[in-house]
Amino acid sequence: MTDVVSMDKIVALCKRRGLIFPASEIYGGIANTYDYGHYGVLLKNNVVNAWWKAMIQERDDIVALDSAIIQHPRTWEASGHLAGFSDPLVQCLGKCKRRFREDHLREEAEARGEDPEKLVCPVCGGELTEPRPFNLMFETTIGPVREEGSTVYLRPETAQGIFLDFKTTLGFARKKPPFGIAQIGKSFRNEITPGNFIFRTLEFEQMEMEFFVAPDEADKWHRHWMEQRMEWYVTLGVDRDKLRLRPHGADELSHYSSATSDIEYLFPIGWSELEGIANRGDFDLRQHAEYSGQKLEYVDTATGDRYVPHVIEPAAGLGRTVLTLLCDAYDEDEIGGERRTVLRLLPRMAPVKAAVLPLVNKDGQPEKARAIYEELRSRMTAEYDAGGSIGKRYRRQDEIGTPWGITVDHQTMEDDTVTLRDRDTLEQVRVPVSELADELASRLG
Ligand code: GAP
Fold it and tell me: Is there a single domain that holds both residue 93 and residue 65?
């Protein structure tokens, strides 16, 4: 069903309906940076809420955190990001002078069956420089002048804020391992290769949870989180057959990880990472203990046992989850000989749940429709739309995935019923206005 989808169509739909579009467009845009418009924000918020629900509301072993984006610069020395968070960069010495990730060029050459030792510029065929490491962290300064000690970094992952607050959180949360700390927030990486729409951007939101466990339980909890996280995407409506778990090879592992598996989705660009689930061992807590001089361990007051917990980390990208939902839900069909684009999102993920449409702009229908809309919107996101033909209005709602269209017509004015149209089955049933909100709420689940 989703064979019709391509990245170009997703980009076009997002722009056309104002979900997501290039940032700074009036200045010609800025590389790998996008803004979310009204429907994009609503969709993103639904993902955020679903993540918090799974992490906090439906469990009692995880607490929430919102740590600062700019942390003490020693953080990144301890975490290894200052020394090791880099990509191999090559630059074209020919005409175009563009820069590329050498590892990406190698992968592409191998996929084409070419010798990865004989790389040339993929744009102009020019000679390439030797690779040199390029740190992905954005640097800035605190205070008006750049001087020693004033350099700070925009966090490249939200995880480190959680490790810095491990001791504080342990103190007030009244938890003991196994327990987790979860947060959602912006991270920043100076990515040099053009991404595929919002797949790879300079700033992006991560949904990360660090789960602290006794060392001998790490493998068990790693398996637990791999299963949980795969299932979570299915509960968002994502096609199970387009999700897979791929363990990292030894050469791919991050400096902190002893085992990582990626949840991958079959995007139109091929299987690509959606979330990483890593066993970070005790690397981070030990590093921060050493660099800060603080004891970062768990002491069992009953037994006197003390240990540095190991960490299992499900780290998801919010933008990538939004992109997954869009790609997975995108469909095209034909109604009455007319081509239609429709997002078959689960109702609970749809930006707008119900659109209330007066059939004609007279005979009291607009006022009646507006009153129904005003009642509905206290229960769910709803829209009132009186502009254009009814067909056009349905098409507009289909494109943003609105599951239910409610039409007010001449019969409504006589018997106080409306037509309730289903986005996917196109079935239309008459429902009394007095029962409408409950009917939709029960369909919403
Ligand atoms: N704390 C572990 C960590 O940051 P990661 O695999 O580098 O691991 C986790 O990032 C997730 O964040 C990725 O699976 C992806 O969904 C998202 N992500 C990473 N870099 C991104 C980028 N430049 N643009 C959009 N999302 C990104």
Answer: no
Specify the number of domains making up the chain: 3
Whole-number Å distance between alpha carbons of 237 and 146? 49
Number of neighbours of residue 56 by Cβ within 10 angstroms: 16
CA of 141 to the centre of ligand 1 (A): 24
Q: Which of 228, 230, 224, 252 is nearest to 242 (CA)?
A: 230
pLDDT score for 345: 98
Non-local CB neighbours of 199 within 8 Å, separated by 6+ positions: 267, 269, 272, 319, 320, 323
State the pairing for strand pair 354-358/382-384. Answer: parallel
Q: Is the shortest distance between the CB of 328 and ligand 1 below 6 Å?
A: no
Band (pLDDT 50/70/90 cuts) for residue 221 is very high
Q: Residue 164: inside a domain, yes or no?
A: yes
pTM of the model: 0.93
- pLDDT tens track for 62-78: 999 999 999 999 999 99
What is the rounded average pLDDT of the residues 370-395?
96
Looking up residue 389, the CATH number of its domain turns out to be 3.40.50.800
> Is 320 close to ligand 1, i.e. is its CB under 6 Å away?
yes
Residues 13 and 92 in one domain: no
- The answer on pLDDT for 2 being more than 60 is no
Ligand 1, atom 15: nearest CA belongs to which residue?
Answer: 317
Instruction: Tell me: do 162 and 29 sit in the same domain.
Output: yes
H-only helix segments in 117-239:
159-164, 166-173, 218-235
174 is a domain residue: yes
Q: Residue 427 sits in which domain range?
A: 352-444
Q: Is the CB of 165 under 6 A from ligand 1?
A: no
